[in-house]
Amino acid sequence: MKRFERLERIRRMDPYEDASEIYRLSAAYEFPWDFTRSLELALYRTYAVPGIGRLLAATAELTDRTQKRYDDTTLLLDAVVEHGFGSGEGRTAIRRINQMHRSYDISNDDMRYVLCTFVVMPKRWIDSYGWRRLSHHERVASAVHHRTLGRHMGIQDIPESYEEFEACLDAYEEAHFGWDADARRVSDATLALMASWYPRPLRPLLRTATLALLDDPLLRAFHYSPPNAATRTLVRRAVRTRGRLVRLLPPRRAPHHARQNWEIKGYPNGYRLDELGTRPVPGLRGCPVRPTDPSATADE
């Protein structure tokens, strides 16, 4: 197989009818490492919305059980990608996702924003750091795939196209990103988790490298001091260089799904999809605080 042969196959497919298959080819064959990194960043961004960050802090899932929450989220979302919406595994994963979300009064606006991050952040990451840019078919397919996911989750007013997903994300972040002490605790716990995957002497370096990949609005929301310009340039250049080296390698012949990532630590003896995820916290139903934007209260 030649380096761009799979891309040519994708271009011969229908990005609407074959959306989930195209998305699977992109995520499991073309860019598995990039999708993992970008979706980590996608979920991480949601903490900077104070209503989301505070709720996550109140559940303690991302502060006291950070590795488990990382594993469960990754495995549930990836089961849908690997097996499809109509499969038994896909239906089980979506059912568990919905059961978890229904335990709390989460606004439709927040749910839609999180969905937007799943569409926009992989495209932005891959265009910046991947071995090639995401194609038009892949952008369309990602939007269609996530519209389907959103419908299964009961999300209303889902954007129609990639461009609408991107506009929705940018507007929501501009309106809602802000400082919150509890959200900062969730952020610190996540950074510590990512650093813990590496030998102890390297962990401070990994934290700095992660901060160097974050944009200024995100750094401001968490009150992180931005790394200096030289560090940012060095880190981002290193990640781009990785992408250029991958371009020189033979194309992947077997899929690599997120469940195969070495960062998944919590299930050395396997797992059952219907047992993954969080359970309701006694006494915690709604968001611990009300949103400051009156328009955000309509669905709560």
Describe this structure as you would to a colleague.
The protein has 300 residues and is mainly alpha-helical. 62% of the residues lie in helices and 0% in strands. It has helices spanning 5-12, 19-30, 32-46, 50-59, 66-83, 88-102, 108-129, 136-152, 162-176, 181-196, 203-212, 216-222, 229-248. Helix 4 packs across helix 10 (181-196), helix 7 packs antiparallel against helix 8 and helix 11 (203-212) packs across helix 13. The longest helix is centred in the middle third of the chain and has 22 residues, at 108-129.
Q: Quick summary of this structure?
A:
With 300 residues, this protein is mostly helical. It is 62% helix and 0% strand. The longest helix has 22 residues, at 108-129.
C-alpha-based Rg, rounded: 19 Å
Give the overall pLDDT as a whole number. Answer: 91
Unreliable spans are: 284-300
Helicity range = 55-70%
Number of domains: 1
Number of helices: 13
Q: What sort of overall outline do the alpha carbons produce when their principal axes are compared?
A: globular
Distance between the termini: 51 Å
Characteristic terms for this protein:
single chain, 300 residues, mainly alpha, 13 helices, 62% helix, globular, disordered C terminus
Break the fold down into its secondary structure elements and pairings.
Elements lengths: L4 H8 L6 H12 L1 H15 L3 H10 L6 H18 L4 H15 L5 H22 L6 H17 L9 H15 L4 H16 L6 H10 L3 H7 L6 H20 L52
Helix pairs in contact: 2-3, 2-8, 3-7, 4-10, 5-6, 7-8, 7-9, 10-11, 11-13
